[in-house]
Design goal:
The chain has 415 residues and is mainly beta. It is 3% helix and 40% strand.
Length: 415
């Protein structure tokens, strides 16, 4: 079974925008900037991309269908194709330092570069099973996992790879992650989690408490980790897998990849352009605006603010502000305040301006979800407008106030 065929690209939902909701084309154009979180980069390909990895703030790699390897040396502004000698689908890329990197894929494909991607050489894996994930604990010791529960290990920088006894024969292991030189985990179908404490010599199962399929994991320290997968599943552990806790993701979309920039702030991406962020170690996950409906397969951050996500149809996204919504006042001297925030039923919008001639009476107020979908449009009152939001589901929403003198944007939380 091929992972790429398990899930298909979602067809974009058609949206219609009524002209009566628009005060002017100009206001619509400038108001859109208030939602900018992730921007689309030009990848130069329409091939699916499945993994992204950066070795520093400017240098990064993405791999995907038909042996595609892309490299950037300017933070994603430009991407160039790296020759590598294979047309096999590449599923995962990992660099152990600035120059030494590996990519794995279908039919046992393993590629290695010693010169930061200038050249790639095929290695002998000894198998024809597909490999989905690769990671290294240093320049010489690495692991790859994939089809039929296969685990390969190298201790000589990939010159030779040896099968390990995984103790499982499930269809797929989709992810491997080592929290230290000796302690590592592999994740896959049917809620499978296996752990090694002796650098892969032996692997033991961990009870995940779910039969969900797991696609990715990330550990912030030797004990604390997060696993994501099908149906929006996010699993966390604070004791090295002894106890696994299912977190509330707020989505049923499949999640393919996760990444934490520190012990509190993390991201996960997936189906239908889903991007979720947590600021509190997974206690709450909030949806971010990706501006795409393509599947996002991998996410990577170079610092707390700058991150990348790649996916189907050559999609590469970038954020330079941690993906957070930026509240904007798009007219000099025009702003709004909203209260209470968070709210449970009523929300009041007040104009914050010393100009007595400026009011909301000839304007409109829009309420949108975090994906930018307009849910409600209200004709505004003079200086203050109250809105009943009791029917909205709990989550983060956007308030956009439009007047003849400009636009102001804020967000609020409905509890």
């Amino acid at each position: 079974m091929n992972l790429a065929k398990r899930y298909h690209e979602h067809i974009k939902n058609k949206q219609s925008v009524s002209k009566k909701l628009i005060l002017s084309i100009y206001l619509i154009l400038i108001a859109a900037t208030g939602f900018a979180q992730w921007t689309t980069l030009t990848s130069g390909t329409t091939y699916g991309l499945y993994s992204v990895y950066f070795t520093d703030s400017n240098t990064g790699y993405a791999v995907g269908d038909f042996g595609k390897i892309l490299k950037t040396i300017n933070g994603g502004t430009n991407w160039t194709t790296q020759p590598n000698g294979t047309f096999e689908c590449l599923r995962s890329v990992y660099f152990s330092d600035a120059n030494i990197g590996f990519a794995v894929g279908n039919h046992g494909t393993i590629l290695k570069t010693n010169d930061a991607g200038a050249t790639w050489s095929l290695q002998t894996s000894g198998i024809t099973l597909s490999l989905i994930s690769v990671c290294f604990t240093d320049d010489t010791t690495g692991y790859a996992v994939g089809e039929s529960g296969i685990i390969l290990k190298t201790t000589n920088g990939g010159n030779t790879w040896s099968p390990q006894t995984s103790g499982t024969d499930i269809w797929w292991l989709y992810s491997v992650y080592f929290a230290s030189a000796n302690i590592g985990y592999a994740f896959g179908d049917q809620g499978t989690i296996i752990k090694t404490s002796d650098a892969g010599i032996s692997w033991t199962p961990i009870a995940s408490g779910t039969t969900s399929c797991f696609f990715s994991a990330y550990f912030t320290n030797i004990d604390t980790g997060y696993v994501v997968g099908i149906n929006g599943t996010i699993l966390s552990t604070n004791d090295g897998g002894t106890t696994c806790i299912i977190q509330s993701s707020g989505t049923t979309n499949l999640l393919y990849s996760d990444y934490f920039v520190n012990t509190e702030i993390g991201y996960t991406v997936g189906y239908n352009g889903t991007i979720l962020k947590t600021n509190n170690a997974g206690d709450l996950w909030t949806a971010q605006t990706s501006n795409t409906l393509y599947e996002l397969r991998s996410v990577f951050f170079t610092n707390a603010d700058t991150g990348y996500a790649v996916g189907n149809h050559g999609t590469i996204l970038k954020t330079i502000n941690g993906g957070d919504f930026v509240e904007e006042n798009l007219s000099p001297g025009f702003a709004i305040t909203i209260f209470p925030n968070p709210t449970t039923d009523k929300l009041t919008i007040v104009i914050a301006n010393n100009d007595v001639t400026l009011s909301l009476s000839k304007g409109q107020i829009e309420i949108s979800n975090i994906q930018g979908q307009i849910l409600r449009t209200i004709n505004a009152a003079e200086k203050q407008t109250s809105i009943d939001v009791s029917d909205l589901a709990g989550g983060v929403y956007i308030i956009k106030a439009k007047t003849l003198k400009g636009v102001a944007v804020k967000k609020f939380v409905k509890e």
